[in-house]
Structures are given as C-alpha cells and as structure tokens.
Write a structure and sequence with these properties.
Keywords (chain A): ATP-binding, Nucleotide-binding, Transport
Strand content of chain A: 15-25%
Protein name (chain A): ABC-2 type transport system ATP-binding protein
Domain ABC transporter (chain A): 22-255
GO molecular function (chain A): ATP binding; ATP hydrolysis activity
Shape of chain B: globular
Shape of chain A: globular
Radius of gyration of chain B: 19 Å
Distance between the termini of chain A: 30 Å
Number of helices of chain A: 12
Mean pLDDT of chain A: 83
Number of strands of chain B: 0
Structural class of chain B: mainly alpha
Number of domains of chain A: 1
Order of helices and strands of chain A: EHEEHEHEHHHEHEHEEHHHH
CATH superfamily of chain A: P-loop containing nucleotide triphosphate hydrolases
Oligomer: heterodimer
Low-confidence stretches of chain B: none
Largest sheet of chain A: 6 strands, mixed
Number of strands of chain A: 9
Organism (chain A): Paenibacillus algorifonticola
C-alpha cells in the first residue's frame, strides 16, 4: 500500500548568536545551517497495518508524515501510496487519506463542531447518505453527541481531539496519519482515542500510521515499529523484536506483560515490570547517540 | 465542482455576519470620514479658479459616499488574520490535505469576508446619504443603464480586489510577515485605485500611470460609472478590461501560489 524509497529532505535554518551586535550583523549577512531532516528513508507498509513511528523530538517524524500526506516536497526519493505520488498528485490523492496533527486544529474556532463537519462534507463531496451514516458511527464510537453544537473554542483539549479525529475520518479514508494524537490528553481520553483507533482498524480495515512519544500508545496499538533518529531510519520491526534485542534480561515476565499492555487495559503493567518499553527506547536512543 | 468553495463562502459569511458591534462602529466611522472627505473637496471646489474640473462636485460627493458604503469591497488593508496565521504558524498543513486547490478556498474565504462586512454596512450608509441636505446628498445615477453597469462593474471590481489581495497572502509565504506587503499594497494600491482622490482630479502624467495599472478598475471605474462620469459606451468596454485584468491576476496568483507551495515549509514542527 505504501512504498517509500530513499526519501531525503533538508531545511535551511537561519542561525545567529544572541545579542544586538549579531542581530545587526545578520541584517547584512544571514547565516544558515542545513538540517538534514530526512536522510534516505525507505520502508513499505501493507494494507491494514497499524505502524508506530517513534523517535526523539526533531528526529523527522512529522516531516515524514507531511511528506507522505503530500504537504512537503522531498529533495529526493520516491514514494508511492495507493499508486499516487503524494506531492505530485496531491489533490486527487488526499481524498483517500485522513490526517490528524495533534498540535494543530482543523476545526473552525468560532463555530459549532457540526458546522466544521458539514464544511468538510462539502469539501470532500461526501454523498449525504454516506455522510449521515459515517457521522452517526463516529458520534457513537467517539461519544460526540453532546459536543456537536458547541463552538470549538469552548471544548476541552480531550473533547476537541475526539472531534479532530472524527473530522479526519468523515470521508472514510483508507489510510490515516496520526501525528501525536494523544499529546496532552488525560488518561481517560487517551484510552478512548486508542480504543477508537483499534476499532476502525479492525472493523473498517483502515491502515494507521501513528507518531507518538507515549510508548503506551505503541504498546496498545502498534504491532510494528519504525524508529527514526537524526533523519535516519534505525529500526523497523515488531515491538517484540525490539524487546528481545534490548530487554532480554527478563524474557518470560516481559512477554506476559506485553500481553497485558497490548490489551490496553492495565496501564500499570510496565511500571512494576523489569524493563519497560520506555526504558528500551531510551536505551536505543543512547546506543545511537541521539 | 464549485461546491466546496461555495461551502467555505457560506460558512465564512455566516461567521462574518456575527460581528454586529464592529458593523455599527464601522458605519459611524465611515459617515465621519465621508463628511470630512466631502468638506475637503467642497473647499477645493469653492476656491478653484482654473478651468472647470473633469468631475462636478455632486459627482465627487456620490463618489465619496459610494466609497464609504462599499469600503469593504474596495480597500486593500482589509485582512484575514486567520490566513496569515495559517501560513506563519504552519496550520496550512491542514489546508494542504484537502482535495481542493488552496487558491480557490482562500479566494472564497476572502470574498466572503468582504461580502459579510459590506452587507452589514452599505445599506444604512446609502439610505441616509440619499436623504442628506445638499451639497452632501448622494444623487441617483443618471439612468437605469448606468445603474446596471455600476452593479456589474462593482461586482467584477470585488472579484478583482480579492485577486489582488491574494497576492499579498502569497507573498507572506516568502516574507513570513504580513506587515510589509500589506503596507506596500495598501498605500500604493489604494492611491492608484483612486481611494484618496478620484482619478480625473489627478494630474495628466499621473493619470497615465494609474490607467496602466489594474487598481483603478476596482474603485474609480465603478463609481464613475454610477455618476455617469464614464459614459455607458465606455463603461461597457471597461467591463471587458476588468474581466481581462481579472483573468490575468488570477492566472498570476495561481502560478505564484503553486510555486510557493512547492517550497512551503510548515512552521513549528
């Protein structure tokens, strides 16, 4: 479904030391450093997978998501998603994907949620019948009924995030990008969001690519993990594989704990266990000197 | 085809119509400035000893009131901060995941902003200025044809001004701050559009510059069609020129937008 091949992207970042003298100097001569946000990233993702995409801040996770959703144009490399090249066939491609940026909002700030939804219905040209049934499903599974007529500015972050996710799924995309969907959410909302992602993946077969810093998200959802650091892809494999490579100190206990965690019911599982996935990731970051 | 843009227009319109207090304040301000402008012109006309100017005082008065009533249709400084924020904060990421051209969506938003703002203001101003004592009264157009041509030219003028202001928004992709381009466009654009003084009252050499630029088609042209200062024959030809400029500006805007998007950097991670 997704084939990414040797994607690279660099940004120019302007730099100057603090202070007035340097500020004046930079009026005449700007200094830039080139940041290699992505270097030769390649992977393939099959239909119906949930893939966790992790890495420290500034590793290039969001850049990858933005490239795959057609927003950014990479410097080199190819990418084929459902037969489209995202940045070239942007307008026809984006009908098939949903994107949630956890730190941004796509809902109109001053109008009720439903108005934003109806706008999206018209923008995506969703047939009325289909819109009604999708909306009903989303309202039920995300528990939105009470929120639909409230202006977005008066929603809490957790409520808004549920609405954002619903907004990204109104047009029934077969591929969903979630860029930090659980950022800043409380435990209840986090679990609700995870549950929902699992549901649409299982019932509608939506492929999900998810970036997060919360390893519980990954354990609860993703069977496969991509680890990126400093623009390079460092690990591509299962969560179990990661454990057996780094957390082999406590084999059996680990396995049972994983079972617990992936059911997403017991949040306390790994705080008492020997080596949590969080620790493993920290170890990996250290090993690769990130 | 047009549906998504219409939906944006409708939502933005209903959103804009919420701001009643701003509209009342606007009406007050626009009356105040209308009187000031007319008084200044009145004084000039009383003192002039040169040959009769190319525009009569009553034409200038009509020009001023129309300018005040349809201010939201003609000023370049009217801005949509949301769009600027989209660009500078990186929220444009969401706009780019929509299956429509950004140019069209933003065009619809800007159009709706101007429409909602003008709808709330123009009627009271027009109504009152029709009943003001002379010399401040707004006279009716000389004939019905002039009125019809005025309506057409005003509407095309509105489309033109939105196409011009799109260029301001596109420039923010490069400059990352709206202040500079907004100031440049509004100071030069509005002067060349005839916002400060009607074009016929400018010196000849300056008129030649003005007529070479697109701005005067948005302000000077429709209002002078209304007063009959531009004959119906010239007005019909003018509509054609307006449409040509409109096509050219949209074409340029779309190309510039595509160029900017290819190099877009989504700010703020």
């Amino acid at each position: 479904m997704i084939e990414v091949n040797g994607i690279s992207k660099s940004f120019l970042v302007s730099k100057r030391p603090p202070g007035l003298a340097h500020a004046v100097k930079s009026l005449f001569r700007r200094e830039y450093t080139v940041v290699e946000a992505l270097q030769n990233i390649s992977f393939t993702i099959g239909s119906g997978e949930i893939v966790g995409y992790i890495g420290p801040n500034g590793a290039g996770k969001s850049t990858t998501i933005k490239t795959m959703s057609g927003i950014l144009v990479p410097d080199s490399g190819t990418c084929s998603i459902m037969g489209y090249t995202p940045w070239k066939d942007r307008v026809s491609y984006v009908k098939n994907i949903g994107v949630v940026f956890g730190q941004r909002s796509q809902l109109w700030w001053d109008v009720p949620v439903l108005d934003s939804f109806e706008l999206l219905r018209d923008i995506y040209r969703i047939p009325p019948l289909e819109y009604r049934s999708t909306l009903a499903l989303l309202v039920e599974t995300l528990d939105l009924q009470a929120l639909l007529h409230t202006p977005v500015r008066q929603l809490s972050l957790g409520q808004r995030m549920r609405c954002e996710i619903a907004a990204s799924l109104l047009h029934s995309p077969s591929l969903l990008f979630l860029d930090e969907p659980t950022i800043g959410l409380d435990a209840v909302s986090k679990i609700a969001v995870r549950q929902f992602i699992k549901t649409i993946n299982e019932e509608k077969g939506v492929t999900v690519i998810l970036t997060t810093h919360d390893m519980n998200d990954i354990e609860a959802l993703a069977s496969r993990l991509l680890l990126i650091g400093k623009g390079k892809l460092l690990y591509d494999g299962t969560v179990q594989g990661l454990r057996s490579r780094y957390g082999s100190k406590s084999g059996a206990a680990e396995a049972s704990q994983l079972q617990q965690a992936s059911a997403s019911t017991s949040e306390q599982g790994h705080s008492t266990g020997s080596l949590s996935i969080e620790d493993i990731v920290v170890q990996m970051y250290k090993e690769y000197a990130l | 085809m047009i549906k998504p843009y219409y939906a944006v227009l409708r939502l933005r319109l209903s959103n804009g119509l919420q701001y009643r207090a701003a509209a009342y304040a606007g009406i007050g301000t626009q009356f105040f400035f209308g009187f000031i402008f007319i008084m200044v012109f009145e004084a000039f006309y009383a003192q002039t000893s040169a040959a009769a100017p190319q525009m009569s005082l009553s034409e200038v008065v009509a020009y001023c009131w129309l300018k005040q009533a349809f201010l939201a249709f003609i000023v370049l400084w009217l801005r949509d901060n949301e769009l600027f924020q989209l660009i500078t904060s990186g929220n444009i990421a969401y706009e780019l995941c929509r299956p429509s051209g950004i140019y069209g969506l933003w065009y619809a938003k800007l159009l709706a902003q101007r429409l909602s703002s003008a709808l709330l203001r123009c009627l009271p101003i027009l109504l009152v200025s029709f009943f003001l004592p002379q010399p401040y009264r707004l006279e009716l157009p000389p004939d019905f044809a002039a009125f019809l041509l005025f309506v057409c030219s005003l509407i095309i003028g509105l489309f033109l001004i939105v196409a011009i202001s799109m260029l301001i928004y596109i420039s923010v992709f490069i400059t990352m701050s709206p202040a500079g381009s907004l100031l440049m466009f509004s100071v030069f654009g509005e002067f060349f559009a005839g916002m400060i003084i009607p074009v016929p009252l400018m010196p000849d050499w300056m008129q030649r510059i003005v007529y070479a630029l697109p701005f005067h088609w948005t302000v000077d042209f429709p209002f002078r069609v209304y007063t009959g200062n531009i004959s119906t024959l010239d007005a019909r030809a003018g509509l054609l020129f307006q449409l040509l400029w409109l096509a050219a500006l949209i074409f340029i805007g779309k190309i510039a937008m595509n160029k900017a998007l290819r190099r877009v950097v989504v700010q703020g991670g």
